[in-house]
Each structure stands twice: as structure tokens, then as C-alpha cells.
Design a protein that fits this description.
Blueprint (H helix, E strand, L loop, with lengths): L3 H17 L6 H12 L4 H8 L11 E3 L2 E8 L22 E7 L5 E8 H8 L7 H4 L3 E2 L2
Parallel strand pairs: 2-3
Antiparallel strand pairs: 1-2, 3-4, 4-5
């Protein structure tokens, strides 16, 4: 999926994990890129919309066509029978759409779900922890 740089990043992270036991933290960067692709954004357009972003930009992870996107993702550890049971919750509502992506252990997208901010807030604001099944109540992207 996507640009050869994505493939190189995944290969490097998996080689690191094989050598040192824990993969580097690449899930956030990959999930933002993969979410853009799921929305039909080209590599060039994604690159352009990310040029003024920083890792600590509050709220949305990227803006496309005046819509703010917050991206969350999970990947199982790779240990035998490991699976994702808790998922990240948005800490603010400074976005229009949230996309949650579940990867397999080699960073292939297994599923992706999108939520608009108002139904997300109504469903999850008072919850402390979320599960994959909570996000699966949204609209499926992949």
C-alpha cells in the first residue's frame, strides 16, 4: 500500500523488532499516511498538506478539503495469540472526523472505521476506555 518509503519504514521497524525485541514507534506516522490513502488522497497531496504540521500539533492530524482528521491506530504486539483489546480515545474534539485503523503484526491494514465528531462525543465522552468493538460501531472504511 502506498509509497516505497512506507514499505522501507515497515521493513526497518520489523527488522529492528526482530533484532531488539520491540518495534520502533511508527504506528502514528503510518496510520496518518494510510488514513489519507483510504480517503483517496494522493501521495503528492498528502505530502503537501503535511508540510506545515508538527508532531505536537493539537487536534487534527491532517486537514483535507477543509475537513480536520484525527487518526488513531493499533497493532498487536506480535506475540503468539496477542490481540488488541484497548484502543486510544480522542482527548479533545478539535477535529471533524476520527479514523481508527487496526493493523496486523506486519502493519497491514485489517480494518478502518470513521466517526464524525458529534456522534463520537455522544457515544464515548463519558467512557474511560474503549475497545475495538466500540470503534466498530462507526462507518467502515476498510
Amino acid at each position: 500500500m502506498g509509497h516505497p518509503l512506507r514499505t522501507q519504514l515497515v521493513e526497518a521497524a520489523l527488522a529492528w523488532q526482530e533484532r531488539y525485541g520491540i518495534a520502533p514507534a511508527i504506528t502514528a506516522a503510518l496510520s496518518e499516511y494510510d488514513a489519507a490513502h483510504l480517503l483517496g488522497i494522493t501521495d503528492d497531496d498528502y505530502s503537501h498538506c503535511m508540510t506545515d504540521r508538527t508532531a505536537v500539533t493539537r487536534g487534527a492530524d491532517f486537514v483535507w478539503r477543509s475537513r480536520r482528521y484525527q487518526i488513531k491506530a493499533n497493532r498487536p504486539s506480535g506475540a503468539p495469540r496477542s490481540r488488541v483489546t484497548l484502543v486510544p480515545k480522542a482527548r479533545n474534539y478539535d477535529w471533524d472526523f476520527l479514523i481508527w485503523i487496526l493493523y496486523d503484526r506486519v502493519y497491514a491494514v485489517q480494518e478502518a472505521w470513521v466517526w464524525e465528531v458529534t456522534p463520537y462525543r455522544a457515544a464515548f465522552h463519558d467512557m474511560r476506555r474503549l475497545s475495538p468493538d466500540d470503534y466498530r460501531r462507526g462507518t467502515r472504511l476498510a
